[in-house]
Specification:
- By secondary structure, the chain is α/β, with parallel strands linked by helices.
- It has 2 domains: 3-207, Rossmann fold (3-Layer(aba) Sandwich); 228-352, Rossmann fold.
- The protein is 31% helix and 20% strand.
- The protein has 12 helices and 17 strands.
- The longest helix is centred in the last third of the chain and has 13 residues, at 327-339.
- The protein is globular.
- The two termini are 16 Å apart.
- The structure holds aspartic acid.
- Aspartic acid binds at residues 19-21, 69-71, 100-102, 126, 128.
């Protein structure tokens, strides 16, 4: 049974404004990131009907000094955001991260994996049109995100989720699938955690019962973020297979000593061209201690390496299957693992173990 929560917590909700279309203004060369977000948001919230305004929690806003178009966000920004959220969860009912939509699902996947049970709801949102644009989705997305972030304990998210166009999606399972539609995000492998009809509604038990990894992985993850390395120098690459890909092309990526991990996006259920030279490149990279993992190019379904002989060779080469993780989560998990001071065997084991429901059935 869906549960409806009309109340909100007495604590404030903290908004972390990073940039994105939602806060952009028209400039000489098109939309560009803009500041003054707190005051602009105040003005827009004041336009809501009184009843909807009353249902909102009190908010505080922290704006990053330079708001960015999210196409410029890097894994280093993911780490900074997680560091900024970690100590603040205890002081706030919840946290809303305002972000551009282009890489919103990458940031939310990384935050899910880094923060793992953050201690308060962390809701990532943005909009397809600026706050002040006519018929913008910005205000409704912010309202929903604030309401989900303000749900009082004991029944509230202890997780990272995306709120967009009336739906709450698991932060580690979402992907941007439309370049212009209002409901630009979907979570292919898993149903929405909640929806919004006059108020926030959690739809699944799993929305409040956070996923827990096994004890060994938990012990490992609890060691972070001590000795956590900053990742921003191209340590991880993403390679989407294409027809006719040559071994020299693959090796141009993987043989570079700066590359420590690679996400391969294979054909269908986990297939690659029947070319021993490609497999050799992968074998060499794995032997050098690089973490090479694979997900599918398809939006739905999972890689199962044994289905085709060519795919089977990948498993023998030491390529790890990422199940039905979206590329965002697989890439963010790689980045997180490379940032941690771990030996190769531990890294490999940790990759194939789910941490926050980023793969497998809900
Ligand atoms: N380019 C923008 C960004 O990602 C798109 C958006 O926010 O919708 O920052």
């Amino acid at each position: 049974m869906p549960t409806r929560f009309p109340q909100h917590s007495d604590k404030t909700v903290l908004i972390l404004y990073t940039g994105g279309t939602i806060g952009m203004r028209e400039g000489p060369h098109g939309l560009a990131p803009a500041g003054d977000f707190a005051a602009r948001l105040d003005r827009m919230l004041a336009t809501l009907p009184a009843e909807r305004r009353r249902a909102l929690p009190d908010i505080e806003v922290i704006s990053y000094a330079t708001p960015v178009d999210s196409s410029s966000v890097t894994p280093l920004d993911w780490q900074t955001l997680a560091d900024d959220i970690r100590p603040r969860c205890a002081r706030h009912a919840g946290i809303v991260v305002v972000h551009g939509t282009d890489t919103l699902s990458w940031t939310s996947a990384s935050l899910s994996l880094q923060l793992r049970r953050p201690g308060c709801p962390v809701i990532v949102t943005g909009a397809m049109a600026p706050l002040e644009a006519p018929n913008s989705d910005a205000l409704e997305n912010l309202e929903g995100a604030l309401r989900f972030a303000a749900l009082p304990p004991p029944v509230r998210l202890d997780d990272v989720a995306i709120y967009f166009a009336g739906r709450l999606l698991r932060g580690s399972r979402a992907t941007k699938w439309h370049a212009s539609a209002a409901d630009a995000f979907t979570s292919p492998g898993t149903p929405p955690l909640g929806d919004y009809h006059d108020g926030p509604r959690l739809l699944a038990e799993s929305a409040v019962a956070a996923h827990e990894p096994d004890a060994t992985t938990r012990a490992l993850l609890d060691r972070t973020p001590t000795n956590y390395r900053r990742i921003n120098q191209g340590e991880i690459v993403r390679i989407v297979l294409w027809p006719g890909m040559a071994a020299w092309q693959l090796s141009a990526w993987l043989e570079d000593s700066r590359v420590e991990g690679a996400l391969l996006q294979l054909w269908g259920a986990g297939n690659i061209a029947d070319d021993p030279a490609l497999i050799e490149v992968l074998e060499r990279a794995v032997a050098q201690g690089k973490l090479i993992v694979a997900v599918s190019q398809c939006l739905y379904g999972s890689v199962s390496p044994g289905t085709y002989a060519a795919g089977h060779a990948l498993a023998r080469a030491g390529v790890l299957p990422g199940g039905d993780m979206p590329p965002e989560a697989a890439f963010a998990k790689l980045a997180h693992l490379v940032a941690m001071p771990l030996d190769s065997a531990t890294r490999r084991q940790a990759f194939i173990t789910p941490w926050v429901g980023e793969s497998g059935a809900d």
